Amino acid sequence: MKRLAAIALLISTTALADDGSATVTEPEKAQTNHHEWPSVNELWNETETGSGIKQALVNGTVGLNLLLGYEYSDVEGNGLDAAHGVITRTRLDYLTGDYKGFSAYVQAQYVGPINRHYSPEDPTYDTIADPEAFRFHQAYLAYSGYDSEGRFGSQEILLDNERFIGNVGWRLNAQSFNAASVANHSISNVALYYAYADSINRVDGEIDRDRQYHMANAEWQACEISKVSAFAYLQRNDGLGTLDKLDTYGVRAWGSSEAIRHEIMVALQRDAYYGSVFGEASIDAFDMGGGIEYISGGSDVKERFQTLDGTGHKFNGWADQFLGTSGGLEGGLVDLYGQVTTTVFEELTLMGIYHYFNTVDQTAAGFDGEYGQEIDLMAKYPICPNFDVLAACAYYMTGDGHPDNFTVNKTVFWLRGVLSF
After folding, report:
1. Residues with Cβ within 8 Å of residue 325, at least 6 apart in sequence
2. Interatomic CA distance for residues 135 and 90, integer angstroms
3. Who wins on pLDDT, 392 or 225?
4. Which of 71, 85, 258, 379 sits a CA distance of 20 to 30 A from 118?
5. pLDDT confidence tier of residue 419, bands split at 50, 70 and 90
6. If we measure between CA atoms, which residue out of 337, 332, 399 comes closest to residue 360?
7. What is the largest CA-CA distance in the chain?
8. Of 373, 417, 380, 367, which Cα lies nearest the Cα of 396?
9. What gap in Å lies between CA 127 and CA 171, rounded to an integer?
10. pLDDT for position 43
């Protein structure tokens, strides 16, 4: 009897063990929607879903730009010797490949003199505005996606025709902004741009931390041969002796057809005004054009238009008689000019420009007349796909001898060779 009871107990225990309701199991892990971040190894190396950071770096491109230049500058009557500067610029840049829309760009440059027969290297000579300097001219992180491109870091910013915001590309150090920017193309035929810059890398090799900018620009392709832009460049100056809050608003229209090119721009700033008109026609082998630029002046500084931080060398003559003022003249400025461009021997480009400069308003000392005249000439030839040579000269002739006419006779000559890889 005892043996039967033991057998029955064993059978009942086995049946309970086979019953799922009596089985004790480990609790299942809770289901979550949290994203599982990739490991460092997955970020760095190439995976089945795409390239990693390592591959983006390996697929990057390297560029090298070498410039050798000679500049002669002679300012009449200042008691200094004429400047003769032989100067080099070396630019090395690297652009990474794309990683999930991200990329990075670095451009390092060194400007160095071969001789020192110019100021600021030697103050007994006239000035050549290319001092010795090394810097990271551009260094930014970029993202492309959603019909937009954003950049954060040191970057060149060129807006409109560069009259108010530009890179001053003629000077060897050039100019860049320490900024965050975004460009958007979501709307058909419309390009939107915004940037905030908290400092500027200047052509003299220094960093200007006293000026900050909000830059907004909207560009519309109005028709096949014409575009229109509206802009607002809001500059704040914290430096001593500078004008604060130079808010500048304006519009620009430009375009070209097979034979005609045109450009019109107007801008407002405080109680000051700016306007320019340019037209050019192609006739046989020549492009012939001309225009007028108006920069207001007045007895009150708020009536004197300031040209902000544009590429000033492109405007008002290559001798740079008006560059240091950035507008801001009590007498204002009217620049009437005509130019001719042609190409000979298939690739040799020749250009000639004539400027006539006059005042807009009378100064307190009674100056109301001719600043002067200028002739600019240039020849550019690509010796091979990677090597260009350029020769240019500017001859400025001062006008009215009034004490308020700050311009002086000046002759400048440049010879440059640029090798790019």
Report:
1. none
2. 11
3. 392
4. 379
5. very high
6. 332
7. 140
8. 373
9. 13
10. 63
- Tell me: the pLDDT tens digits for 11-66? 444 444 444 444 444 445 445 455 566 666 666 666 555 567 788 788 889 999 99
Mean pLDDT of the 395-400 span = 95
Report residue 188 as tokens: 């058909």
Residue that wins the pLDDT comparison between 394 and 211:
394
| pLDDT over 70 at 317, yes or no | yes
Query: 405: closest CA among 333, 336, 354, 353?
Result: 333
Residue in the block written with tokens 């419309």: 190
What is the torsional sign of CA 153, 200, 209, 171? positive
CA distance 131 to 112: 7
Write down the mean pLDDT value for the chain: 89
Spatial neighbors of 240 by CB under 8 A, at least 6 apart, are none
Cβ neighbours of residue 346 under 8 Å, at least 6 residues apart?
none
Q: What's the pLDDT band for 288 if we cut at 50, 70, 90?
A: very high
Residue labelled with tokens 């700016």: 274
pTM: 0.86
pLDDT number for residue 21: 43
Query: Which residue do the tokens 């090799």 mark?
Result: 205
Rounded distance, CA 411 to CA 264, Å? 31
